[in-house]
Amino acid sequence: MAEPRPLIGLAAGALAGLIAAAALAAIEAAPPPAGETAAEEDGAEPEALPAVTAPPARGDRVRYIAGAVLGGIYGLIAEYKPEARDGFAPTFGIATAALLDPLAPEDAAVEETHPAGPLAFGAVLEGIRALIAGRR
Known about the structure:
Keywords: Signal. The protein is an all-alpha fold. The chain has one domain (6-133). 60% of the residues lie in helices and 0% in strands. It has five helices and no strands. 25% of the residues are buried.
């Protein structure tokens, strides 16, 4: 087994966490696909989508700081226990979403997490971490 590289794991994980947080923000900002609104299910005319506004700055900071911290933790875990990477990233994303969603501030950027968000966070986190630190 290769010697663990904690600083590389921490740095790669933190950077990957920032990128994964941006991916999560993009998923949550996307409008729902056609056919997923209540008006369309009832057969009524669909309403025009509201204009997308910029989220509050505080919510963005919380999102990206949490992404970097969680990514750094994941990067360290991946360095010391490489077998934990196999299928662990999406599970890690789901677990962190379940733990952190109730702790989000009232004025957070997103009131509700998209169902695919935590899976995407975990998949992007491991993909970018592996690109930066390599698979060992």
